[in-house]
Amino acid sequence: MSIAILGAGLAGLSCARALAERGIAVRLFDKGRGVGGRLATRRLEAAGRTIAIDHGAQYLEPRDPAFAGLLAGLPCASWPEAGQLIPLPTISALPRALAAGLDCRNGVTITALARAPGGWMLADAAGERYGPFRAVVLTAPAPQSAALLAPIAPDLAEQLGGVVYAPCWSWLAAFAEPLPLPDLLRGRGPIAWAARNSAKPGRDAAEAWVVQADAEWSRRHLDEPAEQVAAQLSALLPAPPPLAQTAHRWRYALVERPLGRDFLWDARRGIGLAGDFCPGGGAEAAFLSGRALAQAIAG
């Protein structure tokens, strides 16, 4: 009997990969069109060309040997301006590599879990049912996981109540001419991060930027329409009107107060939780959390 993993971000993928390597069948479910979660890439159409821009995580900081070893097996390059490492051709290459060969159902939003005599059953927003599964692993952001757990494991849901996130609005824009700016800007008023896309190794030479607002600004504008947010963020750069632009809201961008554990695993009920919200941190923390949970499940 297989294990259901909800969320195909880095935690879910690393857990699935580690379980699969131990001969344990897994099935991933993710509401997004692709895998990777915040290791995400969007594409803008501008002046007859397609420009790929990382609009979530911007780079990776491998410190743990296991995470460094994973990246060593992928095409990566140093990004001198940021002093960090990035997968090639885009940051989403990492989750795609982890997902290769795994059973992943994208575009599926799981809305309910139920324990049946044969194991765990899942239901999605379209009314489809999946299962039975030997165990279920939740790797979505803590508030989303808590909502699923509340009816069937309120004690676990309550443990997630103390996790706090900072949101982030990202603005992506393409221009006809290079902007008269350094390739990288950090901590300039509401701008937490801004980068020229072509400054990244292996990227399209077209002039395109990603601008990420800080947590305070993002909280103030959290529920505003994307078009309105794009207009406000564009005013923060000395730039002409873009050829193309879009804005994306990351409601659960950065963990401000983590759970304080590497993962949660209730073997009796067959429920596990993993993600960067557990130990706190970014991509590496998510990867290690999912991997550690897989080790606990496999025994």
Tell me what the structure shows:
The chain is α+β, with helices and mostly antiparallel strands. It folds into 2 domains: 149 residues, FAD/NAD(P)-binding domain (3-Layer(bba) Sandwich); 143 residues, Alpha-Beta Complex (Polyamine Oxidase, Chain A, domain 2), CATH 3.90.660. The chain has 8 helices and 18 strands. The strands form 5 sheets. The chain has a 6-stranded mixed β-sheet, with helices on one face. The protein has a 5-stranded antiparallel β-sheet with strand order 13-14-15-12-16. Helix 1 packs parallel to helix 8. The longest helix is centred in the C-terminal third of the chain and has 16 residues. The model has no long low-confidence stretch (mean pLDDT 95).
In short:
With 299 residues, the protein is α+β, with helices and mostly antiparallel strands.
From the alpha carbons, calculate the radius of gyration and give it in angstroms.
20 Å
By CATH, the topology of the largest domain is FAD/NAD(P)-binding domain
Tally of strands:
18
Class by SSE composition: alpha+beta
Largest sheet: 6 strands, mixed
End-to-end gap: 16 Å
Helix content: 10-25%
**Which CATH class of the largest domain is shown?**
Alpha Beta
Taken in chain order, the helices and strands follow as: EHEEEHEEHEEEEEHHEEEEHHEEEH
